[in-house]
Design a protein that fits this description.
mainly beta, eleven-stranded antiparallel beta sheet, twelve-stranded antiparallel beta sheet, 4 helices, Porin
């Protein structure tokens, strides 16, 4: 069963990874100023690209647009990049590699700049690994860098060149703006986006905010009842009989999941914590070799609170449907329950105290409309007789989980 589930999990992940290549409606403008509608592969660039992949139609072969052949490209209502020759300072921001010069050291480069705000004054971003630079222009004039730089001072401290604040105060100022407003702006995307929006609104200009994305719920609270198919095997290294093999039993459990969506990589990753009540109850008989002793009956009524800590990856099928896979580390807090071994006459033969250990789990599921979900989860073997030197155990569970998310 374990090998079959693992094989199924690998096959579904492979299928979803292949199917996740997403080409979305967009356009590009070539060097002849022709605007061509197309489908652009949206890989949610963390770094500004130098090329992109596109299709002229759904069934056509993919092609590449490069910074040499394309002046502008965009994905409708999501992102936009323009080609521009700009002065860029690539001085390191690493504390150990800071320059002694407070002034930017410029190189002239041809780059695809990401448009953040479009209006009377435009704001652009360039990202390359650990480097982030912001640019602006007014009325589509020449694009200039917003100047900020950390540097080593003469007395070996870290200085900061906030020249971009002066640029904003001199070139992008409205009558109602206060100097204190400028002094509190950091060289960060959110601060700059907010300022450029306020400036454009002050100028009564139409503003396009490419950073204004669809609202995403970064936290989900989900009720998750389940059906568990569990089995238990215990074995002794010293006593006789040597082992008890309990049947697979169907039981019920209930969990409350707290899921936190990670705000990057198009919200495909999440972490989750799910306190869950589970119970396993079974009885079995094993023959005792001592004839006078007769058969022994073993009864187990094992309940606990499991706390899976999971990392989850989503594969989006369409706007409302997605498949997900989990990997979990499961803490188990068992109640003071026992395994009772009794003789035919009802007298006690042995009592084993349950003290469970932690284990791992993996699951695959489907979620619809961010509300309803189904999951199959397999747990690896768990030791539930952890404090007993003479006995060991093997407890396994396969769960069928349904979920309903409140928010």
């Amino acid at each position: 069963m374990k090998k079959q589930l693992l094989f199924l999990l690998i096959m579904i992940i492979s299928f979803c990874s292949y199917g996740q290549i997403s080409f979305e409606n967009g356009y590009y403008i070539n060097n002849s100023n022709e605007k061509i509608s197309c489908l652009i592969k949206n890989i949610d660039w963390n770094n500004n690209p130098t090329q992109f992949e596109y299709k002229l139609s759904e069934n056509s072969e993919s092609q590449k647009g490069t910074i040499k052949s394309v002046k502008e490209f965009g994905i409708n209502n999501i992102s936009k990049y323009i080609r521009s020759t700009v002065n860029i300072d690539r001085s390191s921001d690493n504390i150990n590699d800071l320059s002694d010069d407070k002034n930017p050291i410029y190189n002239k480069e041809i780059l695809f700049l990401k448009v953040l705000i479009e209006g009377k004054s435009n704001l652009y971003e360039y990202a390359d690994v650990n480097l982030k630079r912001y640019f602006y222009n007014i009325d589509n004039a020449i694009i200039e860098p917003l100047i900020y730089k950390r540097f080593n001072t003469i007395d070996k401290n870290i200085g900061k060149n906030y020249r971009f604040r002066q640029q904003l105060w001199v070139n992008l100022k409205c009558p109602n703006f206060k100097l204190s407003q400028i002094e509190n702006i950091d060289y960060k995307k959110n601060d700059l986006v907010k300022y450029f929006i306020e400036y454009n609104e002050c100028q009564n200009a139409t503003v396009i905010n490419y950073e204004q994305k669809q609202k995403i719920d970064f936290f989900n609270l989900t009720l998750r009842p389940r059906i568990n198919n569990s089995s238990l095997y215990i074995v002794s290294s010293t006593s006789n009989p040597k082992s008890f093999d309990f049947d697979n039993e169907i039981g019920f459990g209930f969990g409350i999941e707290f899921e936190f969506i990670l705000p990057y990589n198009k919200n495909k990753w999440a972490i989750a914590i799910e306190p869950t009540y589970q119970n396993y109850k079974s009885e079995t008989i094993s023959t005792y070799d001592n004839v006078s002793g007769g058969d022994l009956t073993a009864n187990v009524d094992y309940s606990s609170i499991e706390i899976p800590f999971s990392i989850r990856h989503y594969f989006f099928l369409n706007k409302n449907s997605k498949i997900f896979v989990n990997a979990s580390y499961i803490l188990d807090v068992s109640s003071k329950t026992l395994i009772e071994l009794t003789r035919v006459d009802g007298s006690n033969f042995n009592t084993l105290e349950i003290n469970s250990r932690n284990n791992f789990g993996m699951g695959i599921g489907f979620k619809q409309s961010d509300k309803y979900s189904l999951e199959i989860r397999y747990q690896t073997s768990r030791e539930i007789l952890g404090n007993d030197q003479a006995w060991s155990s093997n407890y396994k569970t396969l769960s069928f989980i349904i979920g309903y998310s409140f928010f």
